[in-house]
# Entry
Amino acid sequence: MKKFIFLVSSVFLFASCATFNPSKEVFKEKASYNFKEFPVSGKILYQAFIKTIYFHNFIIEKENKEEGFILAKRCFQKGKRNIILLLQAKIIPDENKSTLYLNALQTTERLFVADRTRFFLWIIPLPGGGGKEASRIKEGEKVIEDKEFYQKFFKEIEKEIDKLKKKLGDKEKKDKK
# Structure
């Protein structure tokens, strides 16, 4: 009996040591590439970001222009798998610069099709029942921590900012004449 109690208590001890501690992960020092400062106003950065995500075929799920918040989504289909890329952006304007924070989340779903058709003698389909039923099951979800992904996105936004600045500069020259 003592051995059994010792065994059970040691199992609980090891199980409690193996639990996930989110505070250690959240506050762990690691490189962050998901934000960048731009030397433009929040309004210009917002327009450039919107144009960039539309150019890359994202759909805007939620948008709050006053708070500088955008939630965009893009879906890819690979066979029976759906890969959903969710992009969350927050623009924080300052006096003569703005900071863009990006977070990307990738969710993978699998499509299962179940055939519910009834057969007589495993050959003849019976009327009035069955059919096919499709269901999606989430396989996984992960935060994208790829430095190259964020750098490419920021580069595209910078290109769009340059286009907007040029357009505004041309407009100002036209107004002065």
Remarks:
- The mean pLDDT is 81.
- Residues 147-176 form the longest helix (30 residues).
